[in-house]
Amino acid sequence: MTHNTPGPSVAASVDLDLDDVVTGQPDPLLFATVSGAHLYGFPSRDSDVDLRGVHLLPVEALTGLREPEETRSRTWDRDGVEMDLVTHDLRKFVRLMLRRNGYVLEQLLSPLVVRTTDAHAELIALTPGVLTRHHAHHYRGFAATQWRLFEKSQELKPLLYTFRALLTGIHLMRTGEVVAHLPTLLGSVPAPEYLAELIAAKADAEHGPATGFGPERVRADVEGLHTVLDDAQGASALADAPAGFDALHDFVVRARLQR
């Protein structure tokens, strides 16, 4: 299993009526989904909406002399909410999938779907072929980066990102399922009981301080979850290397020729 399962309230937390954004892109979008705090289950009233997806360049864009626009970014304001859309060309996105990159898998499997196609569904079906126990390195590294940000800022946001990354990594190692929604993870992975309170506190402000707990306890809990992730990686039934390269190569070629 690879699906990213949210709680029932997630879809209601963000406006998915973004057809104008999708139709305004210069090349076809194979998919566009919502990532970031909305996907993770702890958006604030002032949270940005992070849209991520895949566009499909024409063959001539990859064979001519000009550098292809493999990554595109756009930021705008919609009714007082900052929106940003980042898309990769299909080839670049698939290469990232093959590099134990949990972030792009979360985008691909996000249940907050703005745009989908048959190609999106096929790419999801190919995802098990890229999952390996080495995806634990991605989540371990992401958690370490967010912990350093928390130590510097003492803000709640990077602390929740730290816990979310560790719990997602543990769950993936144990089940082969990518779940990025922190409230859902609290029901499947042993975690500190105060996380539910921190999620509720995050709803009030995107950059609020982390308060109400002892810093040494939090440090010990984070270190403990790193150990749990290490153990889960060691015991994981996931493969040691991706097995889906050929199938993904064929998919990219076929999608490009059918554009």
Task: State the gist of this model.
The protein is of the alpha+beta class. It is 48% helix and 13% strand. The chain has a 5-stranded mixed sheet.
Structure write-up:
With 259 residues, this protein is of the alpha+beta class. It has 2 domains: 135 residues, Beta Polymerase, domain 2 (2-Layer Sandwich); 101 residues, no CATH class. Helices cover 48% and strands 13% of the residues. The protein has 12 helices and 5 strands. It has a 5-stranded mixed sheet. Strand 3 and strand 4 form a beta hairpin. Helix 6 packs antiparallel against helix 12, helix 8 packs across helix 10 and helix 8 packs parallel to helix 11. The longest helix has 21 residues. It is globular, with a radius of gyration of 19 Å. The two termini are 29 Å apart.
Q: Which tags fit this structure?
A:
5 strands; alpha+beta; five-stranded mixed β-sheet
Spell out the CATH superfamily of the largest domain.
Answer: Beta Polymerase, domain 2
Named at the architecture level, the CATH assignment of the largest domain is 2-Layer Sandwich
| Mean pLDDT rating | 90
SSE pattern, N- to C-terminal: HEHEHEEHHEHHHHHHH
What's the level 1 CATH class of the largest domain?
Alpha Beta
Distance between the termini: 29 Å
Q: Using the coordinates shown, work out and report the CATH topology of the largest domain.
A: Beta Polymerase, domain 2
Number of helices: 12
Largest sheet: 5 strands, mixed
Question: How many individual β-strands?
Answer: 5
Q: Can you list the strand order of the major beta sheet?
A: 3-4-2-1-5
User: In percent terms, what proportion of residues is strand?
Assistant: 5-15%
Shape call: globular
